[in-house]
Amino acid sequence: MIPSSPIKTLQTENGCFHYQDEGIGQALLLIHGSLCDWRYWRWQLPELAKHCRVIVPSLPHYWPYENTQTGFSVYQHARDMHHLLDALNIESAHVLGHSRGGSIAIQMALKHANKVRSLILADPGIRTRQQENHANFKHEALLAIQEGNIDEGLALFIDAVSGPNTWKRMVRWFRQMVRDNASTLVLQQNEPAFYFDDTAFSGLTLPVTLLGGSDSPAPFPAIISRLENILPQAQSHFITPASHGMNLALPHEFNRIVITHVERHQLK
């Protein structure tokens, strides 16, 4: 894919990472999830940039950044996003996080509240202690990758979060992106867990939109349901028919919801 704008780089305490910056107006930061990078948002950047300023980073450790063995956690990546907004002289931004990126977005709102105008959480990957067994697929996927069975391991991971046989149906560019980020599963396996914290989360008073896929597998529907109970101000939307990769399955509907959210919660 040829990017619609030049890829830029930023040096932080956690290394160098790459991002795109396109459009003007309200700032919107898009945070990708596991095994992804800025390419994940290929169907969002051009359309959303017509309505606001869109910042699309590859998190440190993800393609095309050379992998390291330090500084990989939801907490560090939230700090990295804070540094990115600072470096771009953005006072505050709407923050959209998908899957693991949803945890990063919430951590930003908890610890860097002045930088977060609102949250859009798409199937956020927040762990609960009751769902620990569901995370076993990550270990199995990692073992397959370490044994050299890369596509087998990636298929285990992708199918677990998106539904059976999703990997087989994925287009070539998506598979390549996931392969390029396969090594991050080693770091993700060892990162400190980001658990649900009802008390801390209930203290968030900023606007929140929750996005789910109608066919997203466990634990995502339960996560959204729990967030609905904790965050009475949250508005929920379920994109049909779509699973975890809802922004790829139905990009125009996904983008419409995001644009409506940003316009409704403009900075005054």
TrEMBL record:
InterPro entries: AB_hydrolase_1, AB_hydrolase_fold, AB_hydrolase_sf
Entry keywords, A to Z: Hydrolase
Pfam family, one: Abhydrolase_1
Superkingdom, natural source: Bacteria
Gene Ontology molecular functions: hydrolase activity
The AB hydrolase-1 domain, residue ranges: 27-245
Full protein name: Alpha/beta hydrolase
Organism annotation: Advenella mandrilli
